[in-house]
Amino acid sequence: MKLYNTLTRRIDTVKPLQAGRIGVYTCGPTVYDYPHIGNWYTNVRMDTLVRALRSEGLITTWVMNITDVGHLVSDADDGEDKLEKGARREGKTAWEIAEFYTKDFMNGLELLHIGTPDHIVKATDHIKDQIALIQRLDAKGYTYVIDDGVYYDTTKFEGYAAFANLDLDEQQAGARVSFNQQKRHASDFALWKFSAQGKQRDMEWDNPFGNGRQGFPGWHIECSAMSMKYLGESFDIHTGGIDHVPVHHTNEIAQSEAASGKRLAQYWLHSNHVTVNGEKISKSLGNGIRLQDISDKGIALDAVRLNILESHYRSQSKFSWDGLEAAANRLQHWRTIAAQVWQPLAEADSESVLSELTSAAHDIAAALADDLNTPLILSRVDQALSVLEAQAVAAAAIEPLKAFLAYLDTVLGIDLLAANGPLDETISRLIEQRRTARLAKDWAASDKLRDQLQSLGYGIKDLPAGSTQWFRL
RNA sequence: GGCGCCUUGGCGGAGUGGUUACGCAGGGCUCUGCAAAAGCUCAGACACCGGUUCGAACCCGGUAGGUGCCUCCA
Fold first, then answer.
1. Cβ-based neighbour number of residue A79 at 10 Å
2. Which residues on neighbouring strands pair with residue A270, listed in sequence order?
3. CA of A273 vs C1' of B66, distance in Å?
4. CA–CA separation, A385 vs A315, rounded Å?
5. Nearest nucleotide, C1' to the C-alpha of A473?
6. Backbone phi, then psi, for A60, in 5-degree steps?
7. In this structure, are residues A168 and A153 in contact, taking their beta carbons and an 8 Å threshold?
């Protein structure tokens, strides 16, 4: 497996720290609102990474966090907690907001066939771990306390700016936003924030830092604490959206590596952003398409997954309704061909099909291992399926074809075989009745049965020899 | 101002030196009682200007345009 590694800015060959096993950590959602299409691009891509690793036989432990506290409206450590803000907006508590949107997110994972991570961990369930980590950093002299919280002194961590290639001096000179004047450096960030004087938050905890003042963790510390807890102080792959490179991941590295003295992750994989109609997705533009919006248009969510795989994870991708509809057509076409698995033709040739399946599976695995080149994989699938389409499937090729489709389902998560079970008895009786009527040239009866099948969700294709193929609509 | 990225046919999108993948959309034809998400087939792109090379979408330099992060944000 080769992946573009943000740490080295090269395509590196992945070598697990522990033979045969690999750990992956993904920065998950902040659960204060519905996820939009861009979030799903990232999640599907991370899921594809995990599927690829597993398909290579690596025992993969996938950890994803849920940020349910501490992510402020501004990364400058000012402003409100997003959860508390969401709570005010909806007249609920921050806890209720977190629960509601966590459930919604989990539902989306299922709808998009994103395999559930082995550990989905919440920041609020790991307050003690976070406090312990801050104390560790404190003991090593990386922290300082000011009026509103405990901060990390980024100048104490050598190489702080290296990960994101930042020039801190230039950034400060060109900074567009003034920062808390008590902070020693613009790049310093909060490890722990104290609740504002006289205000009670929905989410706040006792802590050893504030002389009795309640408080809550900063956004970055949760990922350091939880990734180390579940995957160890040094693990294999850390992933997230590309926007995390300069702030969140830079800070995470500073926290974890300062505390442990070890390299946090060997490989960092970042998903590029997606634009909608050429514009970036943002709250202010109001172009954050949700899964519900897609369902509302009558488009099956399976197509979303295929649509996402049509782009490479490192390119700035484009979402459009036309593109999504094209993906839906393509998926339908694939399923139509896949349905042949249940209707083999005894006389068909199987040699060329078998060799095509073998070489396709080989090519697909290679493309996957080559920095997750999913667009290339899809073209290979098209090529393989067109061979099947051109020459009905022989009985002898059925089992290998099933295995091939199952492989695609496993690796791509698109349900070619799974959504294509054998016919139930009623349908197969109708198909046979129509075939009989047609052979008897009873066009009226034959067409009526075809309409009936269509209304039941089945399409019909008559083959020259008088036999019939069906497919699900 | 700093750090990046991108520019392939109507749309999406592979392809890192040698018959310009592939899908969607489009044209034509064929099969068929009709129909088909059936078959066959056609057309169509490598932003621009130089350079390297026998040969460049692919390497180098420049130009133009676009765009991301540095604030929200996957």
1. 11
2. A240
3. 16
4. 27
5. B37
6. -110, 130
7. no
Residues 6 or more apart from A270 whose CB is under 8 A from it? A6, A239, A240, A241, A242, A244, A245, A314
Strands A143-146, A119-122: pairing kind? unpaired
Which nucleotide is closest to the Cα of A30 by its C1'? B74
CA distance to A18, A177, A252, A323, per residue, from A248 (Å): 27, 18, 6, 32
List the structure tokens of A159: 């190489």
DSSP string, A247-275: IIIHHHHHHHHHHHSS-SEEEEEEEPPEE
Which residue's alpha carbon is at the shortest distance from the C1' of B25?
A326
List b or e across A38-73, with b for residues whose CB sees 16 or more CB atoms inside 10 angstroms.
bbbbbbbbbbbbbbbbbbeebebbbbbbbbbbbbbe
Protein-to-nucleotide distance from the CA of A401 to the C1' of B36, whole angstroms: 24
Residue A40 · residue A292 · CB < 8 Å: no
Nucleotides of B under 7 A from a protein CB: 1-6, 11-16, 21-25, 31-40, 67-74
Nearest to A262 by CA among A234, A290, A241: A234
Instruction: Write out chain A's pLDDT in tens, 473 residues.
Output: 999 888 888 888 999 999 999 999 999 999 999 999 999 999 999 999 999 999 999 999 999 999 998 888 766 666 778 888 888 888 999 999 999 999 999 999 999 999 889 999 999 999 999 999 999 999 999 999 998 899 999 999 988 888 887 766 665 544 444 556 688 888 899 999 999 888 888 999 999 998 889 999 998 999 999 999 999 999 999 999 998 988 899 999 999 999 999 999 999 999 998 988 777 887 766 778 899 999 998 888 989 999 999 999 998 888 988 889 889 989 988 988 888 888 877 666 778 788 888 999 999 999 999 999 999 999 999 988 888 776 667 788 888 889 999 999 999 999 888 777 888 888 889 998 998 888 888 888 888 998 888 888 888 888 777 778 888 87
Please give the backbone phi and psi of residue A73, each rounded to the nearest 5 degrees, phi first: -60, -25
Distance in Å, residue A471 CA to nucleotide B33 C1'? 22
Q: How far is the CA of A165 from the C1' of B4 (A)?
A: 9
Strands A235-241 and A265-271: parallel
Measure, in angstroms, how far nucleotide B25 C1' is from residue A322 CA. Answer: 10
Contact A97, A32 (CB under 8 A): yes
